[in-house]
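Example record used in the benchmark description.
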Amino acid sequence: MSGEQFLEKYQNRNWIELMNNKEVRKFILSYPNERSKFTISSTIYSFVRKMRETEPDFNISKLLNMDSIDAEETIWSVCMSYIEGNKHRIAGMIKAYVKSLYDNVHKKRRDNERILWDKSKQVPKVKSRETEVPTHEQIYRLVDSTTHLRIQSIFLLSYSSGLKGEGIINLKVKHLRKALEDREKLRQEFKTEMNKVKDPKAKRDLEKLIDNVPLIIKIDARIYPKRFKGSNLADWYRCIISKDAEELLMKYYNKDRASAESEEPLFVTKDNNKFTQIHLSMILKYNIKKYTKSNNGELKNTQPSLLRRSFYNRLISTGMKDIYREYLMGHSLEVKGHYFSWEQQRKDILLAYLKANFNRISNGVTREISSLKMNGISKDKKIQQLEEKLRYFESEQFSKDIINKIKIEGFEISEPSKIPKKVLTKMIKIGDAEAWKKLSKEGYNLVSSNDEYFVMQKEEE
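Model output (structure tokens):
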């Protein structure tokens, strides 16, 4: 992004006034990265804004005209005010960036003054807060907490594929369309292969893949510029998208991007502009913060980048091989890369990914309906029956029927002497850890569940 494009894009920001000073403008625009320009501009303006609390007419030119000793004291006084407010990160950034601006300007002047910080002027190092990596269930509650289809799609896409923010904003409409085409080709390849396979296990694996081939997007240097810098392996990395993420993605696509040109971004802002990493991060942080407020502080220490960690953790928890996991994360395989081939190992990778199951935990009916629809099978009556069954499973009546059935039938125990006189039954929401812990201590055992509730029982003493 050129300097003029940067200034035009952020012309409504408060810190744009800094650009009235030619030396400041040149310093900030000398940074090639948009994020660096944005961060440094914001930091310097935070310094100016704090100074104006005591000197309303203060501007950055006044600092640059001071000698190095006065400049040091002025910058440090602002740092101290932020430190006293427990804003150590801002204090550290002001100390670094405002000094860098001052030194950069003065090295071109005859006096060549520079700020030499006294050793006593140190910003305290505060231990960074522990991060909270969202669980599978929390991810879906986070998705459900927002009604914006675009944000839901991004959350679930990042979680189920491990894509970074950079990868998400660089996805184009053509990448999704190509993935849909390639999926059908891959399904046909598996069908052809299955006709030649005799081993029962290999045949079952292929049948599973044919019914559940996920979307696969090829990741190259145009999507991850930094990842493939100087590399000739620009087409080796692929990301896999879960069924649930695909369903949301296709709803978003059909609603907002179906008529878009192939080279246009897949995800756009409400003004139909391409996302920047800063803008995307701000929107996702806002939605996480909103979720935290309505869920008693849950995910308070979560950042959008941790969705990728959740993806990684789930791959580990299901025993996926290291080399497959590193490949799906987009990490460099280094020496191991010489023993890896997507074409030869794609079946094993896809099976391991399906085992991880990044979809919403369900009773299987949802998956069966999706399978029938995805394969274009004309079984309207069957789909209708399954949908009615699903609605029943999701209703409160299902839980009540289960409880009543258990109350009436009791347990299948061969010795009559062990048949309980009375069975106590409790129903708790899935994910209610406190209730689970309490009932377990009281001797309750899990006897059944649906998508929303656990049913727990114990014999009455």
